[in-house]
Amino acid sequence: MPTYDFIKLTPTGQLNRHTKVPYFNLPKKERGAPASTWSIHQPRVVSSDVSSVVVNQTPASYTSPKTYLWSTSKFAYGGVPTSNGSASYGYNQIAGGSGSTPMTPWTIETMVYGTSVSFLVTGVSGSDYRVLVDGAPVQANWSTWPSNADYRIHLTFSSAKLRTVKLILGAAQAFSSATVPGAGDLFYPPAPGAAVALIGDSYVSGTGANNTEGNISAGCMTGELALAFGWRPFALGQFGTGYVNNGGGTNGRAAYGHSSRMNALAALPSLDLILVFSSRNDLPLTTYSAASTATVAQAYWGTVKATRPDTPLVVVGPPSTGANTDLDTLNTALRNTANNTDWIEGYIDQRTDPWVTGTGLLSPTNGTGSADFFAASDGFHLSRAGFAQAADRVGSALSSARG
Q1: Which residues is 129 bridged to in the sheet?
Q2: Under a CB-based contact definition with an 8 Å cutoff, are residues 134 and 49 in contact?
Q3: What are the E-state strand segments in 83-148?
Q4: Is residue 223 classed as helix, strand or coil in its secondary structure?
Q5: Residue 366 burial class via C-beta count within 10 angstroms: exposed 0-12, middle 13-18, buried 19 and up
């Protein structure tokens, strides 16, 4: 049985990153059940190793500075950066389609030696980002850019030593370079996190400004999984799509199994895991029956496995926000199909024992269940706390799928 560098859940529910443990060796019928102690997302403890974090538009005034462009071999990416017309900036155009559709959240990781480093990033007004040092965030919450402009993220440390720094950026946020003083340097990280392909809809690509918390782009499932478990996520998400729903086909959007999206998966580097997130976009059942959607899904999973035969494939069921009998029916059909499909390593069920309960929203709240905290104000997507909780639940489900 192989081992995978994802996450180990200890008996106290604390997260230990990068602990190798065997996965996916339970009978299928037992896979995907969240750990019974798991009720709310674990806190992200802010790093104590950073003396200051300054974000502005002023270049760093280092002595004999060294600047490394995004295209040099100093960086490990959770994404596939391309120049998009300018050699000075890398964009994560990864997910197939055209226009802004292929741009999804991504991560940039490097190893820094010295007492300071400065990153040049193109911000998107209202969109979010996060910075981690040795796996711990330097901000207590997701930060947002005030405008569409270039910004410098300046980090200062109390001592000179090797540290791993990771940026989690939202869709359409470009990375240009990193600069260190002459006495410092950058190195490619020797052990970047597990490479995980995330296939899905807006839960993977970012939900946009559809709630009272602003634009959730980096802080969607992609960023929260990278934050919690140190993953290098490859976000193959297109909003509004599903197994059978092509999202209207605008800007090249397509259903999961379309050739453009399969080509995007095939083009990725070596992967440790593929997670396919099922979608509520495949409703209503009057348009797409649960049985027909499950049949299409099974054929799609087979194509994914044929494209990446050596990579474990796990399916995540439809989201648990909102009481919806059609979505429950679809979840049951997908779960039964996945559990009877040999090449599926597990099915993570969000709805049978729902991860979000009650009928409230982040705004307005109504005092029922956990939806007041975890459901965004549009009633369909998750809040920031909801994405954090869902990411931890995915990790818990993966951890429980072992003997």
Answers
A1: 143, 169
A2: yes
A3: 91-92, 106-123, 128-133, 136-137, 143-144
A4: helix
A5: exposed
Nearest to 103, CA basis, from 228, 275, 264: 264
CA atoms of 345 and 23, how far apart (whole Å): 9
Class of domain 3-43+192-400: alpha beta
Per-residue pLDDT reduced to its tens digit, 256-299:
999 999 999 999 999 999 999 999 999 999 898 999 999 999 99
246 or 396: which leads in pLDDT:
246
**Which listed CATH number (2.60.120.260, 1.10.10.60, 2.170.150.70, 3.30.930.10) goes with 52-187?**
2.60.120.260
The CA dihedral of 322, 290, 333, 347, to the nearest 10 degrees, is -60
CATH 3.40.50.1110 domain extents, the chain = 3-43+192-400
At residue 18 the predicted structure's pLDDT band, cuts being 50, 70 and 90, is very low
The predicted structure's pLDDT at residue 344? 93
Model confidence band, residue 377 (pLDDT cutoffs 50, 70, 90): confident
Task: Give the C-alpha separation, 216 to 127, whole Å.
Answer: 7
Q: How many CB atoms lie within 10 A of CB 159?
A: 9
Concatenated DSSP letters of 150-173: EEEEEEEEEEEEEEEEEEEE-TT-
Task: Determine the pLDDT at residue 39.
Answer: 33
DSSP label of 188: -
Q: What are phi and psi of 234, to 5 degrees?
A: -115, 100
Task: Indicate where the chain has its CATH 2.60.120.260 domain(s).
Answer: 52-187
* Among the ranges given (64-78, 116-130, 362-376), the one the predictor scored with the smallest mean pLDDT: 362-376
Rounded Cα distance, 24 and 9, in Å? 14
